[in-house]
Amino acid sequence: MLYRRIDGTAHASVPHAPRHSPTGIEWGYCGSGPADLARSVLLALTDEPTAERLYQAFKADVVARVPRAGGVLRAADVRVWVAAQTTPAA
Asked: Which parts of the sequence are annotated with region: Disordered (predicted)?
């Protein structure tokens, strides 16, 4: 779950795994906060090599499209997205 507090601060139901953003997670655009959110989500749901390989694409495909107010990234939907990235084309 992605939500904002009254002061506008972004929060997620996964722990923040900082790498790019000194101020924390974000969504709704392609930047350092969304990169950290994408990486954090993938680290929570996949192994580290998979998360490291895919988080920038996940940011662009999924996290950047979440409305500013927030939303829900379902684990099942994230796993489907990951599988689509890792399954060879027929």
From this structure: 1-23
